[in-house]
Amino acid sequence: MPKMKTHSGAKKRFKLTGSGKLKRQQANRRHYLEHKSSRITRRLAGDKIVSPADARNIRKMLGI
User: Fold this and answer.
1) Of the four, 1, 6, 41, 49, which is 20 to 30 A from 28 by CA?
2) pLDDT score recorded for residue 58
3) Is residue 54 a part of any domain in this protein?
4) Quick one: DSSP state of residue 60?
């Protein structure tokens, strides 16, 4: 069997934490920021943990 290739889009978007969970950035923080309140942009600044329902597919894409 050939080796599995890592999904190029997924490897740019997800990181593995020390405990093995997957981190992701939040959406809606790229453009049109002048229309969004500071409270919303601050809330979107932090990273989130990927939900368990999606984590399995993402792990497969990353080859983990």
Assistant:
1) 6
2) 97
3) yes
4) H
Q: Is residue 49 situated within a structural domain?
A: yes
Answer whether residue 1 shows pLDDT above 90.
Answer: no
| Cβ count near 62 (within 10 Å) | 17
Q: What are phi and psi of 52, to 5 degrees?
A: -60, -30
Beta bridge partners of 22: 16
- Report pLDDT digits (tens) over 3-30: 999 999 999 999 999 999 999 999 999 9
Q: Is a pLDDT exceeding 90 seen at residue 43?
A: yes
Kindly list the distances between the CA atom of residue 35 and the CA atoms of 8, 26, 42, 44, in Å, as whole numbers in the listed order: 32, 17, 14, 14
For residue 34, what are the domain limits?
8-62
In a domain, 58, yes or no: yes
Distance CA 4, CA 42 (A): 38
